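Intended use. Records such as the Transcriptional regulator entry shown here are meant for training and evaluating sequence-to-structure methods. They are not intended to support clinical decisions.
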Amino acid sequence: MKNIETKWLQDFLTLAELRNFSHAAAIRNVTQPAFSRRIKSLETELGLNLIDRSKTPIELTLHGKQFKTTAQSILQQLDDEVNRLSGSSFLGRHTVRISSSHSMAISVLPKLHTCLFNPVLNTQLSVVANEVDEAVKLLIDGKCDFLFSFYEDRLQVAPYRSIHLGRSYLYCVSAVDEHGKALFDPAENDAVPSLDYTPESYMGRALQRSNRVLTQNTVCTSSMTDFIKALVMQGKGISWLPDYAIKDELAAGRLQILSAREPVPLDLYVYRYHSRLHATCEAIWSAMSKMSPIDGLLGRD
């Protein structure tokens, strides 16, 4: 058993947040030399370098980023147990922090309700939806327990773990007229208005890798799938949209797939750090690992 003091963990988390020894020491109400010794004691006890002191502002090492999740989990578990014993914990709930891409938060997370809202676990979810790169950064920085996003090379190896939730596809779609016919067809007119993803967005990069283009008549670009979907539904142009986001619209005949454009595959994942999480998070992870691919995707084998 490592001889680690809880105040060292709190010191470390404060430093990880502020990235400055003097500022963190002031917050922790100790002198900077004493604060630095406590951080060094934590590193010595762990046998790991947690802080890259050569950078200004300081940065966490890879071990530091991974241990940040561990430290947060340890302190949360201790706080939960103290509150439970004292009777002050609100319904004994543990907060599970989730980071997600916008489109998955809206269309995919609700499909996981049996795992995430298991009444036996008595959890409280804290969900932050961002653009993909920002959502990924929250996991890398140790600011969430789970990340719901797409395939990422850097998250497929240690210190991360992942579960493949299912395969989705980006389909090229158009709104329809009163007769149910597509408003636009690039096979007949290569100048129809197109609604494109920004090149730096995840969807934009996925389409670039697959060499998928719409038309030269781009009338709007955005990184947000739901914004593009709204414009497509208003008849402003054609675009690529993930099947999980347009299932209802396709079923109702309000959107039509332009079959001349081959769909682009998207693999959906949930990621976490390898470090052991709170028991509630571990139970959710175990439930997700046992479930079948998400129902409702239009994916093809």
